[in-house]
Amino acid sequence: MAEGRPALPPLRDVIARHGLAASKALGQNFLLDEQLLDRIAAIPGPLRDAPAFEVGPGPGGLTRAILRAGARLVAVERDRRCLPALAELEEAFPGQLRTLSGDAMEIDARAEAGEGAHIIANLPYNVGTPLLVGWLSADWSPLPWWRSLTLMFQMEVAERIVAQPGTDHYGRLAILSQWRSDARIAMKVHRSAFTPPPKVMSAVVHITPKPAPDGVQLKYLERLTAAAFGQRRKMLRQSLKGLPGALEALDQIGIDPQRRAETVSVAEFVDVARILSR
Ligand code: SAM
């Protein structure tokens, strides 16, 4: 047995032996191709001895790949049926994996996974966006507690995260994802790679944080983008008129109030939010 690569049974056998028929309600679409899983686990960069956090390990395909890469992993799974399969992985990778039984929406990932953790997950579709928004809204002083996010989403959500101004997908999620982080699509994944295949294509998004721009409070940026994109086809002078100080801030920076929200760059939104934050 090569170091870090214990012989493990095929994932299909694990699923059959533990009776893990996929549950639609839990967003279960499993990845079974170990080469693909190793490629996903390589996206954050070297993981040897690094803390990592996974949401929804399921039968443990991505979990194995993260463990093979050498991480110290905390994984939270809501489906109790998966726990025996995950206990086998805890044994196969002694001291590397701690499995928590519960709902990722209710767990304090920072306390469980520790500072500087890489978050890596093939997310359940129904909680993927709220979890991402929570991680992106963390305290940032000068960086967040997590080191990187490597997350599988439905393609449409991935496109909203990395969207550029002037495109249909550009909106609040793009600005939240990009104003103090770099966000890119690291890999597109065909629906046929999943068991069972979902209706739509997927993509792995990789997000790395940067120091936040000075003098900008997230709550003002959020109020601004909520107002601007609440009426995305309207001119800013209409959509922002209910937000105190916003039209004056546009004037101060020299942003034409006849523009629409979807034409305003992330940096321009940040400049307006900085004035509102004063
Ligand atoms: N990681 C596995 C893989 O890549 O094959 C499974 C991914 S599957 C898309 C999503 C997993 O998240 C399922 O195992 C599901 O039971 C789990 N899950 C769903 N909702 C959850 C929640 N709120 N908290 C934790 N896990 C959850």
Automatic annotation (TrEMBL):
GO molecular function: 16S rRNA (adenine(1518)-N(6)/adenine(1519)-N(6))-dimethyltransferase activity
Annotated family: Belongs to the class I-like SAM-binding methyltransferase superfamily. rRNA adenine N(6)-methyltransferase family. RsmA subfamily.
Role summary: Specifically dimethylates two adjacent adenosines (A1518 and A1519) in the loop of a conserved hairpin near the 3'-end of 16S rRNA in the 30S particle. May play a critical role in biogenesis of 30S subunits.
Subcellular location: Cytoplasm
Keyword Hydrolase: no
HAMAP family (UniProt xref): 16SrRNA_methyltr_A
Protein name (record): Ribosomal RNA small subunit methyltransferase A
EC main group: transferase
Chief localization: cytoplasm
Keyword RNA-binding: yes
Residues of the Ribosomal RNA adenine methylase transferase N-terminal domain: 36-211
PANTHER family with a match to the protein in the record: DIMETHYLADENOSINE TRANSFERASE, DIMETHYLADENOSINE TRANSFERASE-RELATED
